[in-house]
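#onboarding

Welcome to the new folks! Below is a worked example of what a typical request in this channel looks like: someone posts a single protein sequence, and someone else replies with the predicted structure as tokens. Don't worry about understanding the tokens yet, we'll cover that in week two.

Example request:
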Amino acid sequence: VDDRRYGRGRPADTMASRLVCKECGRVTLKISWSSLRAFEECRQKSKLRATGKRATLTDVRVFLPGNVTDRTVRNWLQDSPLQNIGAMPDMVNAVIDEQVEETKEEGRVLRWKSARDRELVREECIKAVRDIEPYLLKHVVPFEFKADYKFQAPIQTRRPDGEPDTILLNGYMDILVHHPKTDTWAVFDVKHT
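Example response:
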């Protein structure tokens, strides 16, 4: 495909890694929202990152409070929440340690803003989980729920050449809750703020 908007080659080729499906042998593409955003911001930089010629290092500190809060809530929900009411604040330190260790293992960058920053993150996350718990106890825990729900769904779309094709969407939901009176499911997305 030679499209003036995207430069030479398919846009997905410049922002995704190619994989071959072990089951059907078809070429699949892995595309993340961040790679799509990077592609729209600067196609050349996106291509350099995809080909390994430009580092993708990002300071994960900006995401740390939200990640710690999400993981703490998820762990609490998956471990008998009614038997552990009020336990989330005590879980925060261990989750911060896990996140810091994962960051090191994955070779990502974590720059603390100050000597006291880790303590500030801890306090912020403890406040967040304390604020979230009453909501979870009212709107999630009394019902059937699934925390950290992952799914795959085929989506029909058209390729750049106009031919129809199927894309397999890999999705994730923080919390899925079943309401028995209406026999419906609701999606809850945990937010740190």
